[in-house]
Amino acid sequence: LQKMLRSLSTISKSTVRCMSLTSKLAAEQPSKQEVDDLFAEKPSHQNDQRRHAYSMNKVELVGGVALDPLYKEAKNGKPYLLFNLITNSQFRQQDGTTFDQTERHVITVFGKNAENLSKTIKKGSRLMVQGRLHYNGGQKDEQGNRTQRNTYIIANTVQPLARAARENPDQH
């Protein structure tokens, strides 16, 4: 348990450093050249490794469904499900005061999973979601104005969680 807590602490510190990027840089889509340079083939003595071996896009969230999910079918006839998941975090500032931070995440589920979940989850359901981040927007238009960049989560796994049973002191 202590090893796990230390590794989580290390991850948290690196996450804070990554989050310190300016909002301008975070809003920009990487250019094709930047992506190609980053994942360029290694020298011939390293060809046995996969090209994207050091790349990962993974998200895990536990929270509550904000509104009833929206079940739709794409133009190609494949089903998908959209819903908002709310997560809460509590932080302690340097002066000792604490504050709560609430985040709303847009989740999309595709295929058979979407069909099954549309029948079981509703507003207030507690869920664990595993998936990947997907960004939309952040491109410059003809006038040089940057479009808003939106973040979505494409879910691979959605697991409903049971609510904790509330103790009733009147019952024995």
What's the gist of this structure?
This is Single-stranded DNA-binding protein. By secondary structure, the protein is an alpha+beta fold.
Attribute tags:
single chain; 172 residues; OB fold (Dihydrolipoamide Acetyltransferase, E2P); 4 helices; alpha+beta; five-stranded mixed β-barrel; 35% strand
Name the helix and strand elements from N-terminus to C-terminus, one letter apiece.
HHHEEEEHEE
Give me the secondary-structure category.
alpha+beta
Strand order of the largest sheet: 1-3-4-6-5
The total strand number stands at 6
Helix content: 10-25%
Describe the sheet with the most strands.
5 strands, mixed, barrel
Which overall shape is indicated by the principal axes computed on the Cα atoms?
A: globular
The overall average pLDDT, rounded, is 78
| N- and C-termini, Cα separation | 35 Å
Poorly predicted sequence stretches spanning 5 or more consecutive residues: 7-24
Which architecture of the domain at 59-139 and 146-160 does the CATH hierarchy give at level 2? Beta Barrel
| Rg from alpha-carbon coordinates | 21 Å
CATH class label of the domain at 59-139 and 146-160? Mainly Beta
Describe what you observe in this structure.
The chain is of the alpha+beta class and 172 residues long. The chain is built from four helices and six strands. A five-stranded mixed β-barrel has the order 1-3-4-6-5. The longest helix is centred in the first third of the chain and has 18 residues, at 2-19. The chain starts with a helix and ends in an 11-residue tail after the last strand. The model is unreliable at 7-24 (pLDDT under 50).
